[in-house]
Amino acid sequence: MIAAGGGPEEVRVKFAMRMGMTVRLWKATTDQLAKAAGYEGCSLIPLYHLAMTPAGLTQVELSRRMNISESSVVRILRPLLDRQLVSRTRMIGDGRARLIKLEARGADAIEAFEPRAAALRARLLDGISEGDIELATSILTIVTERLSEFGEAELSPD
């Protein structure tokens, strides 16, 4: 049982609860921002990953970078493909693999959306030092990497 009193386990529980709440609120807020920018039903996160990799990413690589399943990537990509923000083509030499690339319309979408996203980040992170943001990013990176190592068997009840 978790007892009040500020011990190490209570601090860890509060961290886990706060992280879950923050992720949900951040996603909901950015989804509303995307909707206001005319991208309702679209996750723009893949566009950012693809913009950082001009040669494109396979669906497997994109799913790993986003830390989601390949089937989730396919579902998230569908509206982006429909709007011609990204393209998906078979890889030469491996007909099973699909290369996802950012299209010009996708680059334009990021360019149009980024000032809104930057303003949101500025508002949310106002007063927090760059060092603290870097530290939080390092902590979240470590936690994300550790979470991605878990398999279903490890999390199943005995």
Would you kindly provide a written description of the structure presented here, covering whatever features stand out?
A three-stranded antiparallel β-sheet has the order 1-3-2. The two termini are 19 Å apart. It is built from seven helices and three strands; from the N terminus they run H-H-E-H-H-E-E-H-H-H. The protein has a domain at 32-126: Orthogonal Bundle (Arc Repressor Mutant, subunit A). The protein is 65% helix and 11% strand. Helix 3 crosses helix 4. The protein has helices at residues 8-36, 45-51, 59-66, 70-82, 104-125, 130-149, 152-155, and strands at residues 57-58, 86-91, 94-102. The chain is globular and about 60 Å long. A hairpin with a 2-residue loop joins strand 2 and strand 3 (94-102). It is mainly alpha-helical and 158 residues long. The longest helix has 29 residues, at 8-36.
Distance between the amino and carboxyl termini = 19 Å
Strand portion, in percent?
A: 5-15%
State the helicity in percent bands: 55-70%
Overall geometry comes to: globular
Low-confidence spans? none
* Element-by-element helix/strand order: HHEHHEEHHH
- Could you say what the CATH architecture of the domain at 32-126 is? Orthogonal Bundle
CATH superfamily of the domain at 32-126: Winged helix-like DNA-binding domain superfamily/Winged helix DNA-binding domain
CATH fold-level name of the domain at 32-126? Arc Repressor Mutant, subunit A
**Estimated radius of gyration:** 19 Å
On the 0-100 scale, what is the average pLDDT?
Answer: 88
CATH top level class name of the domain at 32-126 = Mainly Alpha
Q: Order of strands across the biggest sheet?
A: 1-3-2
Number of helices: 7
Instruction: Give the beta-strand count.
Output: 3
* Structural class category: mainly alpha
